[in-house]
Each structure stands twice: as structure tokens, then as C-alpha cells.
User: Fold this.
Amino acid sequence: MSGDISRRDFLNGTLVGMGGALTAPWLTPGLLGQLESDYPPALTGLRGSHVGSFEAFHALRDGRFWDEAGSPVSTGEEYDLVVVGAGISGLAAAYYYRQARPGARVLILDNHDDFGGHAKRNEFTHAGRTRIGYGGTQSIDSPLPYSATARALITELGIEVGRWERVHDRALYPGLGLRPAFFFDRETFGEDKLVRGARREFDDGFIESAPLTPKAKADLKRLLTGQFDPWPSETEAAKRQKLARMSYADFLTKVWGVDATLIPLFTTGTHDLFGVGIDAVPAQDAHGLGFPGFQAMGLGTGPGPGQNYDSMHNPEPGEYYFHFPDGNASIARLLVRRLVPAAFRHPERSEGAEAIVTARADYARLDRPGNEVRIRLRSPVVQVRH
Assistant:
């Protein structure tokens, strides 16, 4: 590789250039071929850092790896590029490298038994039908316009982000008679009770049925319908700056002064997107997600489904959010199809972003000697030397 790579780019991209690949004796190509005969998407249990993906690193941490692994042996392989990590970033790095250097030989290593990184796929057969779901990241989204690189990759892979509104059936759950509800648990609210109502638009019936104190009920109704602007003389930009610097929990208790017993009613509403409660999510983000308390602050209209608070400034409104039935796993599969076409036994059946969802990957073909790009799973990288 003749180009200069800064330490920062090296660490951020986890790309490694090397002349040859080394492997411990217990990870021989023959053993790898046997292990790849199974089908990871169909495996059950927690599929994050699964058993088999972390033991080498634990041994390295404990200072016993090199005593147990023995001496490295050369595989005799040479590559123009070795990528550590077969997630979307690693696969995309290999894809772009091959665009810049057609015919380059690339090896992609990953300690897991499946490619995709956080974009995992769950696939099961029940009663003769295949059921597909996401076991990792769900969506493609961007709070601001996509970077030129990201937009180009999505386009090149044939993903039409703007199709979301045409393929998403919003009437599915209502059509099945399903409605949103909130479960009040005894430990937090004093009794176990299920009350129908959407978290961001609780109606009078919900408030009346909720196991809350009279003061909490009055505060909840005030929060939902009150025309309160805590900073009427401030500009919209100044208000947004203040909201960005306080949590939604603080906004409720310190700005609105609502009863603290209401916090658990909203605290898990940000778990699915942020992984943390409203005590750690900025109030500005809560506004973007449609939480109450901002209706009189002049912050613009509330976001629509699949939008956020920056959508009004986004030249691509309505075209930044999308997900496949298996979440982002299909993005990884689209990249793998470009890198190792033979990984899909019937390439003609897997053409296009839709076809890749139901195409079956042949994991035994990912790491064959004849491949210009080889994806080697179950291969933790414990040391790199140029």
C-alpha cells in the first residue's frame, strides 16, 4: 500500500495492510471449512458476542494466550489488504478498496461466526414458512443529509430509502385489533395494571384509569395540554440550545415542575432508540421524538413518523429512514454479494435489494482459495505486524 495512513484513520477504520496472514494452529483452513458448514442466521440464543467469539481475547487479557496457542504458522497467503472486522464498515472498506484497485486480493477477518457485526439476521423455518427478523441494528437513518460517501453506497447497492412510506403498512397492528398500552408495575406505581393509551398522547380516559396520585394526574394533563413556554423572550435557536443541554427528565421536573412520580411513565420511551432513559436523553431529542411539553414553545410542528427534530432542515425529508425485514443485515448481505458473488448460490435470484432478503447465503463459499475477496469468520485477530 503506497498511500499514507494516519494513526487516527488506522484506529477509526481498523484497517490493516500486511504482506502475509498468520494464524494459530487451532484455526487451520481445514477446521474453518468444517465450522462454516452451519448456518449462523438460524442459530438461537443471544447472538452478540456469542460463545466462541471472545475466549481468545479473554486469554490475551489474562496473559495466557501465547502459552496456550503455540507458535504461529504461516498460511502462505498474501493479500493487498486485510480488514479486521466483517461488519458493515469493514465490508464497505473492502468494497471501496476494490473499487479503487480492481483485482486486489482482500482478506476480511472476524471473530464471530457471522458477518454483519451489529447487523445480525435471525432466520427460522416454522410450519414450512421462513420467518426473518433482525437480531441487531434495525434501521438506516441519518439526522442530517447523508454524506456523499454514505449516499453513494446506498445508491450503488440499490437501496431506495424513499420507498419506506410505500412499503410500510401502518394499518397492520390496528387492523389486527391491537392498540398501544402502558403497563404500570407494582414496584414503581403501587399496583400492576395495564392501561390502554399511547405514551406521547395519553387521553383523559388513560389519565383517569392510571394508578397515579391526584397531583400526578393533574400534572400529566397540564403537561399534555398546557400552553407553557418557559422562555417566551428567547429565539427558537436559543431555546433549542437550552433544550440540548438538559435532560428531558430535568425539563419535566425543573422546568415544568411536574410530580416526580411521572418520570417512570416516560423514562423507558427512549430505550429503543437511545438505549438509555430520559434522564440521559436531551430534551431537544425528546421533542424530536414527539414527547409532550413543547407544544407552546414555537419549535415548529412535531415530527412525523420516521422523522426527527432535524428533518425540517434536511434536504431529504422522508427519505432518510428505512429498514429491511432483517434490519441492517441486508446491507451487509448486499456488500457480501458484491465482494463474494459465489456466496449466494443463485446470484441471479439475489439481484436487487429486495431479492437479497430471501436469498440464502452459502457460508462455505466465503473463504475459498480462488476468491479474490475472502471472508474468514471465527478468526479473532490478536496481534498485527506489518
In short: The longest helix spans residues 88-100. Residues 7-37, 302-317 have pLDDT under 50 and may be disordered. The CA atoms of residues 42 and 127 lie 15 Å apart.
